[in-house]
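chain below, 562 aa
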Amino acid sequence: MDRLIECVPNFSEGRDMDVIKRITDAIEAVDGVSLLDVDPGAATNRTVVTFVGSPEAVLDAAVVAGKVSAELIDMSKHSGEHPRFGAMDVCPLVPIAGVTMDETAAYARELAKRLGEDAGLTIFCYENAALKPERQNLANVRRGEYEALKERLQDPQWAPDFGPGEFQPRTGATAVSARDFLVAYNVNLNTTSSRRANAIAFDVREKGRMIRKPDMLTGEIARDDNGKPMWLEGSLRCVKGIGWFIEEFGVCQVSMNLTNVSVTPTHVAFDEVSEKARERGIRVTGSELVGLIPLNAMLDAGRYFLRKQQRSTGVNDAELIKIAVKSMGLDELYPFKPEEKIIEYVLAAKSGRKLLVDLSLKGFVEETASESPAPGGGSVAATLGALGAALGTMVANLSSHKRGWDSRWEEYSDWAERGKACHTELLALIDRDTDAFNAIMATWKMPSKTNEQKAAKEAASQAAVHQAIAIPFRIMEVALESMTVTSAMVDQGIQASISDSGVAALCARSAVIGAYLNVRVNSGDLSDDAARQDFLDRGAKLQEQAIELEQEILLRVNKAFG
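prediction:
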């Protein structure tokens, strides 16, 4: 697995596109990084840039970006709605693949040191990279923003972690961190009152608001016995938020950072802001995502809103994303393009890899028929299995909104979800089977002149063979699992589609038998006798189960025909 980290620097420039382009051009010029997203905002006068790559390449690109921003951005002339204290205001690193958070924190501290020494920036480390406990929270680090920075730097307690300790009027200061994936999410309101938008933000953000004494004339802050201000917590965990007015759109927003979308997902934040706004006589009109969002967050949102409508959630990903976008009004301010906003889609496009599953049906058939040895039987078996699972899912989805069966929508939704999980995995296995074959061929080209080379080649060859057996074996397991959905739909699903259930069973059975042929042929090259026999024995049982279940399903289908 490639070791990948993401870098999401925020620059205090969102209006001069030439400056932004010169910064992003410098990032793209570094080998080993992919620029994923550039999101400028005129009202905030801030641009969020997202790029990904190997840790070493990402650090190189971040340092170059810091240098260019220092040359082009003058903080003494900056104004904007978003809190900020530096030209490169924040520069967080996020672990994506093959890298732990502890390792990412170490990389962040290395980056902080280089930005201080090579780019001449004043650096504070926060969150997981923090070197002092009081600097974990970005709000503490950035308190008072740029305007208070000169005075703060005179306090020994706030000496920077790296770089110049004296105030730099042009570049200000930069906060560097290692953190989990953060979703920057803004909810649009039908008000121009930033004070009311702030009140809603205080209602929902985890920190909440300071409690004030009942005397509304003075607005005095309530304090505890130790003289510390008392706080009333907000309703959403792992959420930071403020309210502001966005002049370019003429509306206010509740601007939030969702620091852990598994705790507070976007759809929960949207609904909670909507409710708190309603209580204050304000209506939510839509929302926007700044930067990127994980695919699962969008799929979860789609399922959430479909459940509220009592509709099946076992629909395809594109439909789930469409429901999420429309339900949260993510396209109110500008078109929401999944291929540009969902991180997995952006990474896939940047990889440049051509997948079999992205071919047209005609293209896939013609590629299979070509002189290339792959795709072969394993990929075709996975395709058959995916089609069978998709048919079973279709019957469940049709049944979920049959007139008169409204009370059973959740039952059919659950079946559709199971079927979708099967055909989604089988689609992925189409390319994985071809990848496994290509991996075997790659070992044939490895050098074998020395004993060490021979040993390395043999080890790589056996690992590739094991994978070439394990993948068709998984095709067998998933295709057989899909038959449980098909079997249920024969008796419980809409009877107008009972023939579809029969075809689904035929496809799944054929997928299991076809994949087992691949298990058997590839097992001949596995030197581990025990592992080979285990694959063969378990595969034979799966094949037997598939044949028996197919015959049972077809018997019930034919009985229904009379």
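The longest helix spans residues 451-492. The mean pLDDT is 94.
thats it, cya
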